[in-house]
Specification:
The complex is a heterodimer of chains A (about 200) and B (about 600). Chain A is an alpha/beta fold and about 200 residues long. Chain A has a single domain, classed as Pyruvate-ferredoxin oxidoreductase, PFOR, domain III (Pyruvate-ferredoxin Oxidoreductase, domain 3, 3-Layer(aba) Sandwich). Chain A has eight helices and six strands; from the N terminus they run βαβββαβααβαααα. Chain A starts with a strand and ends with a helix. Chain B contains 20 helices and 23 strands. In chain B, the strands form six sheets. A seven-stranded mixed sheet of chain B has the order 3-2-4-5-7-6-12, with helices on both faces. Classes of the chains: A alpha/beta (about 200), B alpha/beta (about 600). Chains A and B meet through α1, β2, α2, α3 and α4 of A and β8, α11, α14 and β21 of B. β2 of chain A pairs antiparallel with β8 of chain B, so a sheet runs across the interface.
Chain lengths: ~200, ~600
């Protein structure tokens, strides 16, 4: 049973908390000790959201130390770059193609960085960087808001648990109306990972 | 059964299983979810009190009536409730009374940082502090038992990282049913604190602490783990988790009874190890206690006294001091230097009902540049308060001069006026804050014949903490309809003659009303009423910019609406974020009339 440290970052309203709650519960149901911690300083009001999820034999701190994140899930590109220093050397960065321009970049002097710049920041810490067409995949699954499920699905391909361990728990957490489309988004995310990894030859 | 629970959920469930039958609170991060959780459980009377003082007074009454009672609040809430807190310590209780104080080290969502462990000491009240959700759940029954056995309220301290982190809890209890029936036994010497009775109770308080000092020596949650004897680490709360993670091989003493601390246990631990250090957040509370025992100890000389700790801060501090050997940090790959990333600070939401009023204040007579220069004639002072609207301090709105503590805006405005500051004053606060502690300030304005204009930004909810009900909303914690206290009736009843209600999205009405009130030489109240955009269920068609009409003046950006940005030198509105016809403030701002409701 390997320790797993996942940092999920994004902006209020993107389902970061739902995803990290789900992931924590999946770990617990699979026999891990689990801790998870959110920072959402007034997040519904446009601030950034950060969620630490830790699986392990015994977990002490609810937050992951800088340089020890195995998987960085960026639900928004700028936030992924901001939290890049938390990646362990050659940790995996999984970034959704979602851009939310902060007000400081609209009227301020620092522009919103392009993907090449964001990728450059991430590349200082790892060469395992995946930009996911998460919005398109979620739309294809019939649930445009299920970007978080696409991200979890993508992540699941890297971990030892079987897909059912994920989907069984998620099914119980999801509202009936979005259940099937969300699970579909999860599975499509997992497929995307397999395709990308085989193309990359990693 | 194993459950993944936040500290707050665990506190609520623990209290429920301990038989708590009354729960009161005023919402405040990071404590809010405690009442929200317990309110969903059968057999508990739960309410959002008007403020923390009243919440605790209700708690005292319920506990006098023999019922186990839970009162929860954020750290600054205990300042508001300090008066009944000390009183409850003096009288003692009958039914168990547990007061939960959730501190916010690092000020994630607070106007100040304070270490409420001190309240235990000055209040002469025992305090427990869990290190994870399991302990939070388990400790509640102990807390109620201590309360009843020692005739005292008990403080349970949590912090943001305990309250909001989820950890695995073995839920192994059921709700106690063999508890006292409600009833009040008359006892003036215990409950009527005239000096002659209070002096007697003082002795009871001191005797209680002496008994508690020996009680905590065997408290099962204080835990000694002896490993490498070269280093002994004493810690509490979430800092214990950081200490265990960072000092893997050391000996540890976890303290759950924060006050009084188990002196003999600490002495025993100190004898077992060569060197003692303390890892605790905020003040050197335990460190000072330990030093008073004559034990040589190090703590705050290398662990920060300000802000939240984490494993990384503790580890770096230990390496710098030479307690731990340094570990090689991850080396950066060669590459181009990182670009500067734009900050993402919180801002008022798209469609927020506070924006129009703050925009008008800025436009009318407030020209703060943040440079600290003296105000000109005609400029007015905007005293403000605690709530979402405080975000209006940031540009582009930049419309506020003060924000200190709940309800302070009105008293501050009156004080500036009475001191002879020539500029007019406007006090701005939300409906929930006004109910919490603005009412008394307004009564003082009337009584003292002040002239200030009070603007109540009324979204009929406590928005900042997640839409809790309050007397002005007429909605209870369970969502049930209850008697509503109307702001305008209240203001009139206090004696305000100039009471105005305006639509929070009607710029013209807001502007003319503020102007008229400022020119009026008597106190006035403006209630700017409009729903919180996060609670609006049906959005109208979004607004859009006619790119042919837009001249790129960007006046609309002065609203700071997150739905409006720039594309190709023209303003553009994000249709997904726009609240539509409920708001429409940008359309009123645009001098070109280029912003229109979309026809789609």
């Amino acid at each position: 049973m390997n320790d797993v440290n996942v940092l999920m970052v994004g902006v209020g309203g993107h389902g970061v908390i739902l995803a990290s709650d789900g992931m924590a519960e999946i770990g617990m149901n699979s026999g891990y000790d689990v801790k998870k911690s959110d920072s959402l300083g007034m997040a519904q009001r446009g601030g950034s959201v950060v969620s630490h999820v830790r699986w392990g034999e015994h977990v002490y701190s609810p937050m992951i130390k800088k340089g020890e994140v195995d998987f960085l899930l960026g639900f928004e590109q700028l936030e992924a770059a901001r939290w890049a220093p938390y990646l362990k050397p050659d940790g995996v960065a999984i970034v959704a193609d979602v851009v939310v321009i902060p007000i400081s970049a609209i009227d301020g002097k620092i522009p919103y960085p392009g993907w090449d710049e964001i990728k450059g920041v991430l590349a200082e810490y790892t060469n395992q960087i995946y930009l996911i067409p998460a919005t398109r995949i979620a739309n294809e699954a019939g649930n445009p808001r299920a970007v978080n499920m696409v991200m979890l699905g993508f992540l699941s391909s890297f971990l030892e648990l079987k897909p059912e361990a994920w989907t069984d728990t998620m099914r119980l957490r999801l509202p009936a109306k979005f259940r099937d489309s969300s699970i579909e988004a999860f599975l499509k995310g997992a497929d995307e990972a397999k395709t990308m990894i085989s193309t990359k030859g990693l | 059964m194993k459950q993944l629970l936040s500290g707050n959920e665990a506190i609520a469930l623990g209290a429920y299983h301990a038989g708590a039958a009354v729960a009161t609170a005023y919402p405040g991060t990071p404590s809010t979810e405690i009442l929200q959780s317990i309110a969903r459980m059968d057999g508990v009377y739960a309410e959002w009190a008007i403020n923390e003082k009243v919440a605790l007074e209700i708690g005292m009454g319920a506990a006098y009536g023999g019922v186990r009672t839970l009162v929860s609040m954020k750290h600054v809430g205990l300042n508001v409730a300090a008066d009944p807190f000390f009183a409850a310590s003096t009288t003692g209780i009958i039914g168990g009374l547990v007061i939960v104080s959730c501190d916010d080290p690092g000020e994630h969502s607070s106007q100040g940082e304070q270490d409420n462990r001190h309240f235990a000491k000055i209040g002469k009240v025992p305090m427990l502090e869990p290190t994870d959700s399991q302990e939070a759940y388990d400790l509640m029954d102990w807390a109620f038992n201590i309360s009843e056995e020692f005739d005292t309220p008990v403080l349970l301290r949590s912090t943001t990282r305990i309250s909001h982190c989820k950890t695995v809890v073995d839920v192994n209890k059921e709700r106690k049913s063999d508890l006292r029936k409600p009833g009040f036994q008359r006892s003036p010497t215990k409950y009527v604190m005239v000096p002659s009775n209070a002096r007697v109770r003082r002795h009871a308080m001191e005797e209680r602490i002496v008994k508690l000092r020996s009680y905590v020596e065997d408290f099962p949650f204080n835990e000694m783990v002896l490993a490498d004897r070269k280093l002994g680490v004493i810690s509490n709360g979430v800092a214990y988790q950081y200490a265990r993670e960072v000092f893997k091989d050391a000996s540890h003493l976890k303290l759950v009874t924060i006050y009084p601390a188990p002196a003999n246990l600490i002495r025993r631990f100190a004898r077992e190890v060569e060197r003692v250090i303390v890892i605790e957040e905020l003040d050197p509370f335990l460190e000072d206690e330990i030093r008073c025992l004559g034990i040589q100890v190090a703590g705050k000389e290398f662990i920060p006294i300000i802000g939240e700790l984490n494993a990384e801060i503790v580890e770096n501090a230990a390496v710098e001091t030479g307690i731990l050997p340094s570990r090689p940090g991850p080396s950066l790959r060669p590459g181009s230097p990182s670009p500067q990333l734009p900050a993402r600070r919180p801002q008022l939401c798209a469609g927020c009902p506070h924006v129009a009023t703050e925009y008008v204040l800025r436009k009318l007579g407030f020209s703060s540049t943040g440079s600290g220069k003296e105000l000109k004639k005609g400029e007015f002072i905007v005293t403000s308060d605690i709530g979402c609207y405080t975000l209006g301090v940031y540009p582009p709105l930049a419309a506020l001069d003060t924000c200190a503590c709940m309800g302070a805006s009105i008293g501050q405005a009156l004080g500036l006026e009475k001191a002879g500051v020539p500029n007019k004053t406007v006090a701005v606060l939300g409906d929930s804050t006004f109910m919490h502690s603005g009412i008394t300030g307004l009564i003082d304005v009337i009584y003292s014949q002040g002239h200030t204009t009070v603007i109540i930004l009324d979204n009929e909810t406590t928005a900042m903490t997640g839409h809790q009900g309050h007397p002005g909303s007429g909605v209870s914690v369970t969502g049930a309809k209850t008697q509503q206290v109307k702001l305008e009736t209240l203001a009139e009843g206090i004696g305000v003659k100039d009471v105005n209600v305006v639509d929070a999205f009607d710029l013209k009405a807001i502007e003319s009303t503020i102007k008229r009130c400022l020119d009026n030489d008597e106190p006035s109240v403006i209630i700017a009423r409009g729903p919180c955009s996060l609670t609006v269920k049906t959005r109208g068609a979004p607004f859009e910019v006619d790119a042919d009409e837009c001249v790129g003046c960007f006046d609309c950006l002065d609203l700071g609406c997150p739905a409006i940005s720039i594309a190709d030198d023209r303003a553009v509105i994000d249709a997904g974020m726009c609240l539509g016809s409920t708001c429409g403030v940008c359309a009123q701002v645009c001098p070109q009339e280029a912003i229109l409701e979309s026809r789609r």
